[in-house]
Amino acid sequence: MSVKVIAYDVGTTGLKTCLFSISAEESVRYLAGEVEHYELHVLENGGVEQEASDWWEAMSRSTKRLLAKTGVPPEEIRGITFCSQFQTVVLVDKSGRPLRRAMSCMTPGPTPSSSGTWVRASRWRAWISSRCSST
After folding, report:
1. Greater confidence, 3 or 131?
2. What is the structure's pLDDT at 118?
3. Tens digits of per-residue pLDDT, 4-56?
4. Do the strands 88-89 and 77-84 form a parallel or antiparallel pair, or are they unpaired?
5. Among the residues of the chain, which ranges form H helices?
6. Half-sphere exposure of 135 (CA within 13 A, CB side)
7. How many CB atoms lie within 10 A of CB 28?
8. How many other C-beta atoms lie within 10 A of the C-beta of residue 47?
9. What CATH homologous superfamily does 2-108 map to?
């Protein structure tokens, strides 16, 4: 028996949405993926900002396309997981609505740790990205 899981990679200029099947027999199997792009606002002072609502809209659109493409009904999804950009701040009001654009700290990407091994989260994100980029 397998379960279906959606993985979201909230990236700098786009969101990758991937569907996986997980089972004891086959381990993890990539089924399909979708990408939805959004705007990155680079400021004169080097700062970087994004509209938090763009992430939600990208997630909604890409998930609908993914489920339509695969024919998997939403009820069959048993889990979701997220990975995201490094150090992003979203200021919200009491209702959880963003007060302004999200502020991001841009980095050059994952680097080896002092022991020479890659950070696990970075490897997972790279693995998801490699699977989703092929669609």
Report:
1. 3
2. 44
3. 999 999 988 899 999 999 998 879 999 999 999 999 998 888 788 999 999 99
4. unpaired
5. 52-70, 120-132
6. 20
7. 13
8. 13
9. ATPase, nucleotide binding domain (3.30.420.40)
Q: Determine the straight-line distance between the first and last CA of the chain, rounded to whole angstroms.
A: 26
Residues ≥6 apart with Cβ < 8 Å to 72: 4, 19, 31
Return the higher-pLDDT residue of 108 and 102: 102
Tell me the whole-structure pTM to 2 decimals.
Answer: 0.73
Residues 6 or more apart whose CB falls under 8 angstroms from that of 75 comprise none
Token pair in block for residue 88: 């992003």
Where would I find the beta strands (DSSP E) of 13-130?
14-23, 27-37, 41-42, 48-50, 77-84, 88-89, 102-104
Report the C-alpha gap between 110 and 125 in whole angstroms: 10
Q: Of 69, 74, 3, 4, whose CA–CA distance to 33 is shortest?
A: 69
- The residues spanned by each domain of the chain are 2-108
Q: Tokens in use for 89?
A: 């701040």
Quote the pLDDT of residue 61.
Answer: 97
Residue from 23, 33, 94, 111 nearest 67 by CA: 33
- Residue count (the chain): 135
